[in-house]
């Protein structure tokens, strides 16, 4: 199962990231996972939130450009080597990982790694075939 991620395109100016978090807070949105990548001119903020539609409405109402994409949220043990095992499965199956980031889960000794995969369906099949747990929300 996939979950959806919101990407927010930001000018690389002081305070822009703070504005996003302020608008989401005012709308009662809880950020469950977050990542940002930047260049000299702009950044891409990637978010997993608890109320996606409300978040999109708040962000577009504030003038932010957003995009929604499917990602795989794979639960792994919070121990050394757990991520390496998942990475090896994707490598052996020739599934390209475009990017990833992680979030701690509310479960003891568990983490959730968010994968943006070039071939999303093949990646989901690999996860399922190897008995890995997917987070459908968090």
Set out the fold topology.
Blueprint: E1 3-11, H1 16-26, E2 31-38, E3 42-49, H2 52-61, E4 65-77, H3 82-92, E5 97-104, E6 110-117, H4 120-129, E7 133-134
Antiparallel strand pairs: 1-3, 1-4, 2-3, 4-6, 4-7, 5-6
What does this structure look like?
The longest helix is centred in the first third of the chain and has 11 residues, at 16-26. The protein is 30% helix and 41% strand. It has helices at residues 16-26, 52-61, 82-92, 120-129, and strands at 3-11, 31-38, 42-49, 65-77, 97-104, 110-117, 133-134. The mean pLDDT is 89. Strands 1, 2, 3, 4, 5, 6 and 7 form a 7-stranded antiparallel sheet that branches. It starts with a strand and ends with a strand. With 138 residues, it is of the alpha+beta class. The protein has 4 helices and 7 strands, in the order βαββαβαββαβ.
The end-to-end span amounts to 13 Å
Give the ordered list of helices and strands. EHEEHEHEEHE
List the uncertain runs: none
Mean pLDDT: 89
**Net shape:** globular
Class per helix and strand makeup: alpha+beta
Please state the CA-atom Rg, rounded to the nearest Å: 16 Å
How many individual helices?
A: 4
Strand content: 35-45%
Helix content: 25-40%
| Strands, total number | 7
Largest sheet: 7 strands, antiparallel
């Amino acid at each position: 199962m996939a979950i959806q991620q919101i990407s927010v395109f930001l000018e690389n100016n002081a305070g822009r990231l703070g504005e996003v978090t302020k608008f989401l807070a005012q709308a009662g949105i809880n950020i469950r996972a977050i990542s940002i990548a930047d260049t000299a001119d702009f950044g891409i903020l990637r978010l997993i939130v608890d109320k996606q539609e409300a978040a999109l409405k708040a962000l577009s109402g504030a003038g932010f450009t957003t995009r929604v994409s499917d990602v795989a949220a794979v639960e792994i043990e919070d121990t050394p080597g757990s991520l390496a095992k998942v990475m090896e499965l994707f490598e052996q199956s020739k599934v390209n990982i475009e990017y990833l980031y992680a979030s701690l889960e509310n479960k003891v000794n568990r983490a959730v790694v968010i994968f943006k995969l070039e071939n999303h369906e093949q990646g989901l099949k690999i996860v399922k075939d190897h008995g890995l747990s997917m987070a459908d929300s968090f």
